[in-house]
Amino acid sequence: MHGDAVVVAEGVRKRFGKTQALDGFDLTVPAGAVYGVLGPNGAGKTTAVRVFATLVRPDEGRVTVAGHDVVRDPAEVRRRIGLAGQFAALDEALTGRENLRIFGRLFHLRRAVAHKRADELLERFDLASAADRLVSTYSGGMRRRLDLISSLIVSPLVLFMDEPTTGLDPRSRNEIWNTIRELVSDGTTVLLTTQYLDEADQLAGQIAVVDHGKVIASGTPDTLKAMIGGRIDVVVQDSGDLERAGRVLSEAARSTPDVDVEQRRLSAPIGVDTLTLPAVVRLLDAAGVDPEDVAVRRPTLDEVFLALTGKRDDGEPAAEPSVEKTKEGVS
Ligand SMILES: Nc1ncnc2c1ncn2[C@@H]1O[C@H](COP(=O)(O)OP(=O)(O)OP(=O)(O)O)[C@@H](O)[C@H]1O
Ligand SMILES: [Mg+2]
Known about the structure:
Elements: E1 5-16, E2 19-30, E3 34-38, H1 45-52, E4 60-65, E5 68-69, H2 74-78, E6 81-85, H3 96-106, H4 111-124, H5 140-150, E7 158-162, H6 170-185, E8 189-194, H7 197-203, E9 206-211, E10 214-219, H8 221-227, E11 231-236, H9 242-253, E12 258-260, E13 265-269, H10 277-286, E14 291-297, H11 301-309, H12 322-327
Parallel strand pairs: 3-8, 3-9, 6-7, 7-8
Antiparallel strand pairs: 1-2, 1-4, 4-5, 9-10, 11-13, 11-14, 12-13
Helix pairs in contact: 3-4, 5-6
Adenosine-5'-triphosphate binds next to strand 2 and helix 1.
């Protein structure tokens, strides 16, 4: 039916009071890779993950995980999934090792099996040296890693991760990324929501962009990038040329360039009907502008995201870029 899709959502709706959190949400997640779900604040990402993980019952629509319906067979679904990220459920007053052993027991593993599994995971994910310290002494990154591995006690077929690295420093993010890559190479399918576009770009084979409770675009990062144009950047030798170069660019790119006078740089968005580098150089030359540097850039995933979600119905600007989010110290 859906090949080897592990999560299939069709027409899912969920309302909380006046808020239509999911409004016809469709998603097909193929097995064996990282699937990234992106969207501005309030888009419905967490709600979707909670529906998939059987924590929230959809009002309408259908979701299957590994072929099991989340409403009719929640127990079958739960047996095959792990959930990590925002829902850290660690006991601060216990050590890392004790926490993992308890998770093993919660999942009905025999004591010896739970202990062995805990030791393996601690070793494998680089927490062995901290294993016998209280979790209250762990850094944010270590906690997140322990939370993640606690969801691996029973080797899930699908792991849902809701913003697994929000608020972590670059090193801890890298560690989580490596952990995720290892899991995928072991055959786990990972569905993660993230505010970090570079995280999706680095990890995810496929991405869905969510806005107002539905998926508005999906595909590989490259397909999404191909949907919108790139940018052309020009640095002029002489700042006296900025104005002329600006005229050339706005005509050629049919858009208004951003100008950075100090850096003598102009940057203009270009459409999908690509403007080539030699063409721009020729036009600048004809206008008597001496460029120091000319470059045509493919869009970043951030630019794709903004192009897709930038215009909000309510007139509010789209979600702040992730950098802003960390600056405010969101945990
Ligand atoms: N339990 C709830 N009760 C009431 N409203 C809710 C509830 N859960 C979610 N919502 C609302 O549903 C909408 C979608 O929320 P959701 O948490 O799924 O968004 P999100 O994409 O995860 O956002 P963020 O990026 O901020 O985590 C929001 O308007 C939110 O306020
Ligand atoms: Mg959320």
